[in-house]
Amino acid sequence: MPKRDERCLLDILGGESGCLEFARDFYARVATDEVLKPLFPGKSFRCATEEFSAFLIQFLDGDPDQTQYRWWLSLRESHARFEISARQRMAWLRHMRETIRSKVGDPDLQHALEQFFGVTSAYLVGGEEAAPEHPELYDRWCRQRALDQLIQELVNGSDSEAIALARRFALQPAVFVGILARMMRTARVQPIDFVLESINHERDLAKAMFSGRTLLHFAAGNACLPVVRLILSLGVDPDVPDRGGHTPLYRAAGSPFPVDGPSVVRELVQAGASIDHGGGVNRSTPLHEAARHGRFEIAEMLLKLGANPEVRDKNGFTPLLRAQNCRKQDVAKLLAARR
Length: 339
Hints:
The chain is mainly alpha-helical. The protein has helices at residues 9-12, 15-30, 46-59, 75-79, 86-103, 107-124, 135-156, 159-166, 173-186, 189-201, 215-221, 225-233, 248-253, 261-270, 286-293, 296-304, 319-325, 329-336, and strands spanning 209-210, 213-214. The protein is globular.
């Protein structure tokens, strides 16, 4: 077994900035590879670089504020949309080995990291290899596997098993918020009760973020009225912005839940949320968001509460124009009647 360096791996890689440089170096290599390019259809590798850097920082217990580009907790779930061939995996591993050898000087640690990424890449394509040999990597990989299992238990509806696993992550607020957000998405009683219990036990969770959003953003977007009410009762700003500059009300406006969605909108507005707040790149309001997604009941509630149907986003579009452009005819008729 390779010798373990006395310093933790995060320090050896150069801290959070070192993780970002590692990710940049790796994806600069990937960007030139014709075998791997089909897996990255975008014009740049910025998102992939940010996501991988955030994963490394989270995996190695770095600064939670620098893990906010993570969209997924489960590695398998995050890669499920890809059909990764054996040839692509080998190309990926070749660039990873080159990156490791350019960034890590110690031969034993080079071997440990190469073996680790061999294990993880096999896992992502549905295979299994021997566990990582390096003690720290072994411990951290076991924790990541537990996180993957937790998400799968939620998908399977095995709520008790998921909750038992979730308790292991309570001391990692950024990860725990992501877990609670995923539990709210189930709309099932047991997971939502666990979310309420967790917030009541540790009220600072209401301020923590996963993927650049607070629990209030996730609760609003999932139309989880009990959690919205609890968080607002703790004095959280109803207009707290997420990483994209959007408020919880904006997230609620796009909610696909017609039963509780309007109630969440009303709860936020009554708590002081700015009904016409324009956020994000396009300075869109909640009514723009409801129009874009065709959320008739939510658009109706926003109008009832005083939303301005003539407000324009950065591109000059009103909510009516947004609804028409997105072919949401029911909402378009509703908005046209308010002109």
